[in-house]
Design a protein that fits this description.
By secondary structure, this protein is an alpha+beta fold. It contains nine helices and eight strands. α4 runs parallel beside α9 (262-277). The radius of gyration is 22 Å and the shape is globular.
């Protein structure tokens, strides 16, 4: 009887060693979930990994929205942030520091005390929104990025638009990542979203986008190759319905999408690759 008990203990201890040998570390899980664009997109499209902060406020307190910076923050979040629910939750001061590290995008950031990004964002949404506004103000005043909105057309000839969208598609394939697109509407007005998936169809282009106007769900859109712009119809819905353009708060408008911040994408991809190669 004593012999059997001793043998059972040995078997139990041995099984722990075996389980430990095959168990993935949190870093291994993170790197597996970020091993390709498809893996990152699949993880990002989960409701719990979306940035649950609205596109609010704006430049110098004006109601301009922060769509550019919301999209870039979501991209950094999707590539560079881990959660660790076993650790204590951050204080307000610690959370603000974490948010700034995510904005900087130069290292892997661990968010302690939360099961997912959404819960962290819900608790610290004011701090995140304030940080996005601060990021926007800095880019506008110091880097003069608002000029980007003036330098492009919001409508083209059909031939030029077709050529332009083919170039966007080539950029997407080459980048192999979440691609930032600025949508030139008219005058100084420009919206933005992230393209997470894109494919060429016989008569146009299929896109999956994440838009800060309704950031908790990805949306599928189709852009016809007989169009001269992206015609937004304001048809956002949680059913991810196909529509012949992109909807947003602007209602119905004409816009042309332009790819920006590709060096930023290359940088965060390198940060991720270096981390997972160590």
């Amino acid at each position: 009887m004593l012999h059997n008990c001793f043998m059972n203990i040995l078997i139990f201890i041995a099984s722990l060693f075996v389980l430990n040998a095959f168990a993935e570390t949190s870093k291994e899980v993170f790197c597996r979930e970020h091993s390709s664009r498809a893996a990152i997109v699949g993880n990002m499209h989960d409701y719990n990994n979306m940035l649950s902060v609205g596109n609010e406020s704006g430049f110098l307190g004006l109601n301009t929205g922060v769509c550019w910076w919301h999209s870039r923050f979501q991209r950094n979040l999707s590539y560079l942030v881990q959660v660790d629910p076993t650790l204590p939750q951050p204080t307000d001061k610690e959370a603000k520091a974490l948010i700034q590290e995510i904005i900087a995008g130069n290292k892997i950031v661990i968010i302690p005390g939360f099961q997912n990004f959404r819960m962290f964002c819900l608790k610290f949404q004011t701090s995140i929104n304030n940080a996005l506004v601060g990021w926007m103000n800095k880019d506008f005043i110091v880097k003069q990025q608002w000029f980007k909105a003036f330098n492009h057309d919001s409508i083209m000839s059909v031939a030029d638009f077709q050529s332009h969208m083919n170039e966007v598609y080539r950029d997407f394939v080459e980048a192999d990542g979440l691609m930032f697109m600025m949508l030139k509407v008219h005058g100084p007005i420009a919206h933005a979203w992230l393209i997470t998936e894109m494919s060429k169809a016989n008569d146009g282009w299929n896109l999956t986008i994440v838009d800060s106007i309704s950031p908790l769900y990805p949306y599928k859109i189709f852009i016809s190759d007989s169009a001269s712009s992206i015609i937004a119809s304001g048809k956002f819905s949680q059913n991810k319905e196909y529509w012949n353009a992109g909807g947003s708060m602007f209602g119905s408008y004409e816009a042309v999408g332009y790819v920006y911040f590709q060096p930023e994408l290359r940088r965060i991809k390198k940060v991720l690759n270096d981390y997972c190669s160590e």
